[in-house]
Amino acid sequence: MELTLKREALSSTLQNINSVVDKSSTKPILSNFVIRTMEGENSEVEFSSTDYELSLVELIVAEIKEPGSICVNAKKVFDIVKELQDEDVHIRSTEQLWIHITCGSSELRLPSVEVGLYPQTVLEELPQSMTISVDDLKHCIDMTLFATITNESRRNLMGVCLCSTSDQQTRWLSTDGHRLAQIIKAVDNLSFGEDQEVIIPRKALTEVRRAADLFGETVIITFDGRVMQFTGGRINFKTRLIEGKFPNCDPIIPKNNTLEIVVNRENFINSLRIVSSISTEKLRPVKLIISQGVLKIESEKADYGEVVDEIEAGYEGEPFQIGFNSRYLLDVLAVIDSEDVKLECKNSMSPTIIKSTADEAFLSVIMPLRVEW
Amino acid sequence: MELTLKREALSSTLQNINSVVDKSSTKPILSNFVIRTMEGENSEVEFSSTDYELSLVELIVAEIKEPGSICVNAKKVFDIVKELQDEDVHIRSTEQLWIHITCGSSELRLPSVEVGLYPQTVLEELPQSMTISVDDLKHCIDMTLFATITNESRRNLMGVCLCSTSDQQTRWLSTDGHRLAQIIKAVDNLSFGEDQEVIIPRKALTEVRRAADLFGETVIITFDGRVMQFTGGRINFKTRLIEGKFPNCDPIIPKNNTLEIVVNRENFINSLRIVSSISTEKLRPVKLIISQGVLKIESEKADYGEVVDEIEAGYEGEPFQIGFNSRYLLDVLAVIDSEDVKLECKNSMSPTIIKSTADEAFLSVIMPLRVEW
Question: Taking all residues of chain B, what is their mean pLDDT, rounded to a whole number?
Fold first, then answer.
């Protein structure tokens, strides 16, 4: 194989490639990636990497002198290429599996691996599909990814559940057992049975989100019960879906809430940060004391001191108080972008809805804490 | 004690205070700091903290309602104050050792410690002194601190050695045994015997450098054989000096060098970064191959590949080659600010001088590596 690429395009592609590559090093072959020329295609080459769960296939413009394919360490190539200075990078492989990379006055010689040993990613025709704008996709990921579980304790919660609603929209849903996040979004060309649902892993959504602007305007999402592909521009992600059943969260979302509080989102964030800063616990519990027109926020009474703050609140009912982990409140307040947010609940022990006052499509539910101070 | 301060000034002072505070938590009392009003002084209060080795005493404008002093946890106060939003911060202590801090609608209540338990920093009249501009002080620290030792293996190398030269300038010198850095700088009002030398600890110089812009235009440095004080504006640092003798480095600085190479500093940095990026060793050894007009840089030949690069060099002599840890070269190239740098040595096994082509006051020496590839 012999080809020439633009250094900037190469560097940006390698960053995506390297981000997918398995960092655990339990399977050494997965520390590599593949460059491959395609039959009948003279101006683009295919870069691909996989960790078995998630694969990336990205096309990049190249001047191809001799077709072929190579498999080489992703991190090493990325680390060196990001230091290079010249415009063009020339890559050539020898029969002895050496890769020669030259750029300006710099010359690299790297050992490579038989391409046949690397698991090849095959993009498939899949039965279900939908088209979504890149902005909508980014929004749906942002509004749900934060509430997924990050440890391995419950594999079915380590991703976002996607299903379709009765009115042919998509529903994106995540929960870690203490809180949930849900957004409803209209998409185009949806072919998705109403009784079906898939669970998209965190890592896939994180990588899709990170590279989203490279998709262009829209992304075509195709899937079956096993795998999902995100395709747009020159980029394709393919991920295995999480097996298992997502819990039915509908009973947790409280209906007919009698208590409604509206507060300015930024003031609420500032107050929570001030009050929670005294806490040494990871989730930083706080107490909200709500009365007509006022939301008072109190830290726990710890050995190292206590903090209270208050902000204006739109509230007309009887005074009451409710406890939360401030970390959960701050997570959802960080993704909402309206000026005000609304809290809805029934009483001081009921799950509480936190949502934007401007966007009915999103809601988040947080379980309250029993506060004993 | 009761007083009101501006939040921004408080926040900036607390950052300095907190930076001096002992993080090791082996002596819990040192996690605190002290605020103290001064007799006959109605518009400024004194903030101070110490880790026994290094102390900071900073004055800050305040509206004093009731004089007194408090001793309170530095990190907690810093963490909370940086989240506050309003302009004024009001601090009040009670007889039960509670500290009340209010800012806008935020109220904190923190426990405090008897001020008498905290080691008080006393600024002293010291026999030796000099006056240096803040820019010169920053420069002297930048040009030497990088070559000090960071582990505890040789305590006398964990700082910068300061002495005076025969022509009444100061000499700042550091070494870690593999390299050294030296800068000569004229100062004002120098009273420093020619046979004397002091070793200023890393941490003191790091903190003085970080806070340097708060000193104003000039810094007065006073010292004896035990301690050194840096005073300027509203800030005073006092540090113990490192006991022990600094090694005589003069024999290591090679004289009468016959080989001289001049290279563009940025090109040299770029090439070193490209070539060293293949290495997995911490210090990243490289080989410099020098011939007329050309400097070629080669990585070691490792399992994971090899890199070479070359740049233009001003050199007229016989070809030769010499090995270095690229980390040491990059450290000194990062602090030099001239367009070109000059390397001077005798042969491929001799210590090598690296210096600016524009500033004769600075030099660095790096020991070569035996390169066996």
Answer: 95
From A37, A125, A35, A110, select the one nearest A77 (Cα to Cα).
A110
Question: Which H or E element spans position A81?
Answer: helix A74-81
ipTM > 0.90 (yes/no): no
User: A310–B105: do the CB atoms touch at under 8 Å?
Assistant: yes
Q: With cut-offs at 50, 70 and 90, classify the pLDDT of residue B357.
A: very high
The token duo for B248 is 């005589």
**pTM (2 decimals)?**
0.92
- Within 8 A by CB and 6+ apart from B264, the residues are B311, B312, B339, B340
Burial B242-263 (b: 16+ CB within 10 A, else e): beeebbeeeeeeeeebebebeb
User: Which residue among B73, B80, B308 places its CB closest to the CB of A107?
Assistant: B308
Spatial distance between the Cα atoms of B17 and B29, rounded to a whole number of angstroms: 14
What sections of B74-228 are H helices per DSSP?
74-81, 134-145, 202-210
pLDDT at A164 over 80: yes
Nearest CA in chain B to A108: B307
Asked if pLDDT for residue B25 goes beyond 80, the answer is: no
Domains of chain A: 2-117 (3.10.150.10), 128-248 (3.10.150.10), 253-366 (3.10.150.10)
Q: Are A244 and A230 in contact (CB under 8 A)?
A: no
| C-alpha dihedral, A86 to A90 to A91 to A95, nearest 10° | -140
Most B CBs within 10 Å, among A31, A105, A264, to test the B interface:
A105
Joined tokens for residue B92: 């009040």
The model's pLDDT over A87-132, given as tens digits with 9 standing for 90+, comes to: 999 999 998 999 999 999 999 999 999 999 999 999 999 999 999 9
Phi and psi for B114 in degrees, rounded to 5? -50, 125
CB A18 within 8 A of CB A47: no
CB A3 within 8 A of CB A64: yes
What angle (nearest 5°) sits at the alpha carbon of residue B177, between those of residues B171 and B183?
20
- Measure Cα distances from A362 to A182, A350, B186, B198, B235 in Å: 6, 19, 66, 65, 52
Quote the CA–CA distance of A246 and B220 in Å, as a whole number. Answer: 68
Closest C-alpha to B114, from B66, B75, B71, B74: B71
What does B315-340 look like in DSSP terms, one character per residue? Answer: --S--EEEEEEHHHHHHHHHH--SSE
Which residues on chain B place their C-beta less than 8 Å from a C-beta of chain A?
A: 73, 76, 79-80, 83-85, 105-111, 270-271, 273-275, 277-278, 303-311
Contact B52, B30 (CB under 8 A): yes
Q: How far is A55 from chain B (nearest CA, A)?
A: 24
Mutate which of A108, A304, A306 to disrupt the B interface (most B C-beta within 10 Å)?
A: A108
